[in-house]
Amino acid sequence: MNDAQGHPVDEGLASLAIDPDVLARELEAELVGDPLDEIGLGESDSDVNIARECEQGLQWLKQGHEERLQGLRVFCEHRDPRALPLLVPLLQEPCPVERMSAVYALGRNPCPRAVKILLKLLRTDSNAYVRKATAWSLGNYPDAPVLKPLIHSLQNDVAAVRLWASGSLAEAGAISAKKASIAASQLLVSLKIDDQPLVRSNCIWALGRLYDVLEALLRDEIEEALLNVLLNDLEPSVRYEARIVLEQIDNPPLEQRLKRLIDQGLLA
């Protein structure tokens, strides 16, 4: 198995990686109810099974390497505040698989005590899988000082880390106009210069998430940048993402511009 850059990937590590579709759904986590919130309110089989899994996961986290990996899988899926004191120390394990899995679990189970260590991992961890996981996880800590570290990763790290840093910038920036402006400014730069289509596409997605929070001038800049992508980017998937975002923007003049491009045969 090879990674996106064609480099060989350790099969054991790859088998533990979280599915990208799962991570994309986690970026929408605020729209999804936490199943553990329902425990105690009802006695469905699902509630009972989740409670049982969490109890087993807590026991696994207290045991050896293989058992800890099983426990980490549980808390990549479920939330339980009792796991936090057990998850945070695993961020400093020598095994990159444990560190990576602990990072994902602490994205699912945000813990303020973990922020400082997560920021250090994003900046210094030698394993790109760990940094990638951290870039995603920090999107679930929007009140922490994560904007500058994520921007640094989007500017400098490998493509897989840049991909998730762009998505997390949308999550961290969406909580205020000021933060949205900082995040959007870098996303616009990366959209113009990043050589990876997946990263450019995710920058577009992130800009779409931030659009409504931004002031008028930045909205205009985003519209112009996306129109330029729509007409000039060489990658069809990136042009498609730009069109999706543009068509979702409620702006009659922009809608007219898109219609004219279609009428002129410049868009299918």
Index terms:
single chain, 268 residues, mainly alpha, 15 helices
Architecture overview:
By secondary structure, the protein is mainly alpha-helical. Helices cover 66% and strands 0% of the residues. It contains 15 helices and no strands. It has helices at residues 11-16, 20-26, 45-61, 65-77, 84-87, 96-108, 115-124, 128-137, 147-156, 159-173, 177-193, 197-210, 216-232, 236-248, 252-263. Helix 6 (96-108) runs parallel beside helix 8 (128-137). The two termini are 37 Å apart.
Shape: elongated
Mean pLDDT: 85
How many helices in DSSP terms? 15
Order of helices and strands: HHHHHHHHHHHHHHH
Summary, kept brief:
By secondary structure, the protein is an all-alpha fold. The chain is built from 15 helices and no strands.
Would you spell out the secondary-structure blueprint of this structure?
Elements: H1 11-16, H2 20-26, H3 45-61, H4 65-77, H5 84-87, H6 96-108, H7 115-124, H8 128-137, H9 147-156, H10 159-173, H11 177-193, H12 197-210, H13 216-232, H14 236-248, H15 252-263
Helix pairs in contact: 3-4, 4-6, 6-8, 7-8, 8-10, 9-10, 9-11, 10-11, 10-12, 11-12, 11-13, 12-14, 13-14
